[in-house]
Design a protein that fits this description.
binds NADPH dihydro-nicotinamide-adenine-dinucleotide phosphate, 49% helix, 2 domains, 298 residues, 8-stranded mixed beta sheet, alpha/beta
Length: 298
């Protein structure tokens, strides 16, 4: 079945945690026939009342429809759930968060069982599912034709971003984006800590912080261009030398405010190291090269 027909593609959804439930509800609301299965059956009750068909076993759920969406805890649970199902000629879309390596292995595993496979990384929280205005989306990688075939159905719960044939690339983009988010949260934690002992209302500082982070975020486009061209001095706004010279101010302020610099120092250490190896006229982009290791670490 393809999405070009007027019929809404039936969907089987394995896993009714908070995310799986939100996904199932979005498809139900849009009029798709939905078959659900969850290890703990009671979690399916609300969806059953909303029109979902509840399968007694994962095998029964998989046999119900050609399109199978898994949204389980981790890769181990995906293998456990799918092992005793018949995947021949099924279209498996795995939205479970995994590593890129696990996604590639799971794709091979699914292909060996006769299935087509797409991997997904959900860039949204459950409240953003079925709410297009929230900006949430799902990254997909794996079979391009499979993505194109099911794109209209996959676009129902959230926006879609296809990032290529390598089934590991959705997970890689997912982890890369979330890693950047943690860096941002780390910076915000340090900023709030600096103010903590002062008579400054954090709620008056927060808008300044949010606006500043938003204003700085587009700098990643310059970084990307420098990485692509290999010229780390291209379009530099604040040189590495100038920024390294400024680091004592940040460390002294942290000390004076009684704040540990432990979130800042790893980055500053890399900036200093790069300055010893390259021209101070560079941007901060050279730090990225210092992070690369020849072999994956344990
Ligand atoms: P929950 O913890 O709410 O639900 C986990 C689901 O996995 C439940 O359905 C649970 O079943 C099932 N499960 C766990 N272990 C097994 C197992 N061994 N066998 C069968 N089923 C199992 O997680 P979420 O729904 O929030 O997340 C699901 C996936 O979505 C995760 O990979 C998560 O990283 C990803 N995600 C979640 C986001 C969020 O904000 N929630 C955001 C982006 C991605 P049971 O009910 O029986 O315990």
């Amino acid at each position: 079945m393809t999405d070009t027909t007027t019929e809404k593609t039936p969907v089987t959804l394995l896993g009714l945690g908070t995310m799986g439930t939100a996904l199932a509800r979005a498809w139900l609301t849009a009029g798709h026939p939905v078959t659900v299965w969850n290890r703990t059956p009671s979690r399916a009750a609300a969806l059953a009342a909303e029109g979902a068909r509840v399968a007694r076993t994962a095998a029964e759920a998989v046999s119900a429809n050609p399109l199978i969406v898994a949204c389980l805890l981790d890769d181990t649970s995906v293998e456990e759930v799918l092992t005793d199902t018949t995947l021949t000629d099924k279209d498996v879309v795995n939205l479970t968060t995994t590593t890129p390596a696990q996604a590639r292995t799971r794709a091979k595993w699914a292909h060996e069982r006769g299935a087509r496979y797409l991997d997904g990384g959900i860039m949204a929280v459950p409240a953003m599912i079925g709410a297009p205005e929230s900006g949430g989306y799902v990254l997909y990688s794996g079979s391009g034709p499979l993505f194109e075939q099911h794109r209209p159905t996959l676009a129902v719960p959230a926006g879609t971003r296809y990032v290529g044939e390598d089934p590991g690339h959705a997970a890689l983009h997912d982890v890369a984006l979330l890693s950047a988010m943690y860096g941002m949260f780390a910076g915000a934690a340090h900023a709030f800590a600096l103010l903590r002992k002062e008579d400054i209302d954090p709620t008056t500082f927060a808008p300044l912080l949010a606006d500043w982070l938003s204003a700085m975020a587009p700098a990643v486009h310059r970084t990307a261009d420098q990485l692509r061209t290999g010229d780390y001095t291209k379009g530099v706004v604040s040189t590495l030398a100038m920024q390294v010279a400024g680091t004592p101010t940040f460390l002294a302020t942290a000390r004076d405010q009684g704040v540990s610099p432990e979130l800042l120092t790893p980055y500053f250490t890399l900036m200093h190291r790069r300055l010893t190896e390259a021209t101070g006229e560079e941007d901060l982009t050279g730090v990225i090269d210092l992070l690369l290791r020849s072999e994956p670490t344990a």
